[in-house]
Amino acid sequence: MTRAKNIAVVILNWNGAKYLKQFLPSVLAHSQEADVIVIDNNSTDHSIQLLKENFSSVQVVSLDKNYGFAEGYNLGLQDLNYEYFVLLNSDVEVPENWLAPQIKYLESDPKLVACAPLILSHAEQDCFEYAGAAGGYLDKDGFAFCAGRIFYAFEKNLGQYNSNREVFWASGAALTIKSSAWKEVNGFDGTFFAHMEEIDLCWRLKNRGYKIGVCGEAKVFHIGGGTLDRQSSFKTYLNFRNNLFLLLKNHRSSALVPFLFRRMILDGIAGIRFFTEGNFAYFFAVLKAHFHFYAKFPYYLKLRNEEKKHWKTPNLCGQYRGSILVSFFLKHKHNFQQLNSKLFSE
Q1: Fewer CB within 10 Å, N side or C side of the chain?
Q2: What are the pLDDT digits (tens) for 88-115?
Q3: What's 45's domain CATH number?
Q4: Does residue 339 lie within any of the structural domains?
């Protein structure tokens, strides 16, 4: 595809005409240093007509079916020739000066290959939002959490995370990545379909020695759950399944099987809790996730072995050597800044 600039802001869309109508104007107004592209996952609403009639400057890549978040981006980006890709959810509003600080940050260090801005709630704009908040971390058991949001506890934005810093993973809701890094690891793992594919991507990059950051000088406002509701049992299934996939693929533990066994026990405890609370759809989602993990184990073990060929000295920055479950539920540390800073790898 012909390019006019070296940055592409790329929005993946599936039946999101209402979000395109609501948020594309802000993207176009505040991303003048970039080309804006929409990848359409074979929408059945009036998304394409809306783009043609109201946003003629937006380039459109049309796919023949709904490939999900991960493979949709893989296919949509494969023929794009830009220095930077900015993957932006369709339900995100961007303010002025949201993009330039991220590019400047990435240009400051050749090892820094991806970052995200602060992600705030569109409904409560002084609070951090679920999908990424102020940067992502991973605990010793492979549970993901964020500065600004741990499980269901959300912090207000008081400027406490306004500095640029290295993290473990950056949110796919607003991910800026050097295209060279994206292509080096072949983008997302398409079998994830949706959820945690950005953690997998970032972890693969970190295993090759690269850095992932959060740009505290930039922010966006995210509705969240625009395509798949946060309380969906299907999302629960994807999160449990994909978490096991990414651990099998990327964890550097020499005792991988005991590590995975411990993690599956913790998942089982969560499933039992869902059952006792009457959340039967979530309980069966966990069971389904585990059965699919068993079925895919040989495939992901093969992927792990392929990835190991590229492993270098790992970049562990952003790894929390404690248990976020213990910290949150037993020690009642609901604020990221309450966590023991000495337990974070640098």
Answers
A1: C
A2: 999 999 999 999 999 999 999 999 999 9
A3: 3.90.550.10
A4: no
Closest alpha carbon to 8 in 30, 35, 32: 35
Residue 3's pLDDT is 62
* Same structural domain, 198 and 262: no
Pair 209, 313: CB distance under 8 Å: yes
* Alpha-helix runs per DSSP H in the chain: 17-29, 47-54, 68-77, 100-106, 179-184, 197-207, 233-250, 256-276, 280-308, 324-325
Q: Is residue 29 part of a domain?
A: yes
Q: Where among 202, 222, 242 does a domain terminate? A: 222
- Residue 283 to residues 194, 241, 273: CA-CA distances in angstroms? 20, 13, 8
Helix (H, G, I), strand (E, B) or coil at 246: helix
Pairing of strands 319-320, 149-150: unpaired
150-154 CB contacts, 8 Å cutoff, 24+ apart: 150/324, 150/328, 150/333, 150/334, 150/335, 150/336, 151/328, 153/328, 153/334, 153/335, 154/121, 154/127, 154/128, 154/129, 154/130
**Whether residues 277 and 143 fall in one domain:** no
Residue 62 β-bridge partners: 40
DSSP 8-state secondary structure symbol assigned to residue 344: B
- Total domains in the chain come to 2
User: What domain range includes position 258?
Assistant: 233-315
Query: What is the rounded distance in angstroms from the CA atom of residue 250 to the CA atom of residue 263?
Result: 14
- 8 A C-beta contact, residue 211 and residue 112: yes
Of 8, 135, 19, 119, nearest to 61 by C-alpha is: 8
Whether this model's pTM surpasses 0.85: yes
- Residue 179 falls inside a structural domain: yes
- Give the position of tokens 């869309």: 13
Average pLDDT on 152-181 reads 98
Using CA atoms, how far residue 156 sits from 126, 132, 136, in Å, is 6, 14, 17
Considering only CA atoms, which of 82, 29, 74, 22 is closest in space to residue 47?
22
Tell whether 91 is covered by a domain: yes
DSSP for 5-60 reads: SSEEEEEEESS-HHHHHHHHHHHHHT-TTSEEEEEE---SSSHHHHHHHH-TTSEE
